[in-house]
Design goal:
The longest helix has 36 residues, at 112-147. The chain is mainly α. The protein has a single domain (5-215), classed as Up-down Bundle (Four Helix Bundle (Hemerythrin (Met), subunit A)). The chain starts with a helix and ends in a 5-residue tail after the last helix. It has 9 helices and no strands. Helix 1 packs parallel to helix 5 (153-165), helix 2 (43-75) runs antiparallel to helix 3 and helix 6 packs across helix 9. It binds fe (ii) ion (FE2) (2 copies). One fe (ii) ion (FE2) binds next to helix 2, helix 3 and helix 4.
Amino acid sequence: MTDRTEGLRLYDELIAVHTIMRRSTALVVDALQALIDGRPVRVATLIKLIDWQAAFVHHHHESEDELFWPVLRDRFPEVVAQLDALSVEHDKLDGALGQLSTEAAALRGVPAEQASARAVSLLPAALEVRDVLAGHLDTEEPVLVRLFPEVPAGEIITLRKAIVAGAPKAGPEWVLGLMENPSRAQGYDIMMANFPPPVRWLRPLLLRRYAKVRGSLAVD
Ligand SMILES: [Fe+2]
Ligand SMILES: [Fe+2]
């Protein structure tokens, strides 16, 4: 019988990553709304968050398309069509996130009253990204929770190593903060154990930095 533990652990890690993505896309919507409402949003931070989010989500999609799906396709031919459909959504989402970054760049250096008007035109795209992503994850998670535990532990461990090695190093304060705020995501402890020791030592500093950048988005 397959040892299901490693597969379930990897699933929990994936949920932690999904939680970061769900919270980030929701935070972008809230910050744009704050800007529209005339609250003192630090636009440079909002642009950074939008850029970081596009890169973070794109990287996650790439690891699914290139590392996870090939393993699952080989082992479970009955889900090939579902995996292909998820990959099509990855491409669409990456396109929408990239487009949002490009449009958000136009906010740079714009006076506050004009930034508010421009935020109105960005909001529909940000809402679409948040909702399409949430729908994607809601479809993907039930498929993966069923399949991951069926993959042999050795294969899961190899997969995890490849993912950890290729993980983006940018914006650790967003990664940590969104994983902890407002509550610790499912899979938090396993994710923390994957981080290189310096990130774990720097946790208090990174969380302070997160509180500061989040505060500058005027969402709370
Ligand atoms: Fe995913
Ligand atoms: Fe996905």
